[in-house]
Amino acid sequence: MAQTTPNHTQTVSGWAVLDSSGKAVPHTFKRRENGVDDVTIEIMYCGICHTDLHFARNDWGITMYPVVPG
């Protein structure tokens, strides 16, 4: 469950790739709260496509880590 902080950010968890090894590890990070024009949905399942693998491994030389693929 996300925890909201006074500066309108949430602490959330996901699986992130931290470097070009492409290995995903549990990761906690902050993101902004949803605004009035945003929609909140519950994600039950998530997949990784081949493009995510290229991005996670920095095959195109543009990845900024950490990255949460999917």
Classify the secondary structure makeup into a structural class.
Answer: mainly beta
Range of helix content: 10-25%
Which band does the percent of strand residues land in? Answer: 25-35%
The helix count comes to 1
Mean of pLDDT? 90
> If strands are numbered along the chain, what order do they take across the biggest sheet?
1-2-3
End-to-end Cα distance, whole Å, is 19 Å
What does this structure look like?
The protein is mainly beta. The chain is built from 1 helix and 3 strands. A 3-stranded antiparallel sheet has the order 1-2-3, with no helix packed on it. A hairpin with a 4-residue loop joins strand 1 and strand 2. The longest helix is centred in the last third of the chain and has 7 residues. InterPro entries: ADH-like_N, CAD-like, GroES-like_sf.
Structure, briefly:
The chain is built from 1 helix and 3 strands; from the N terminus they run E-E-E-H.
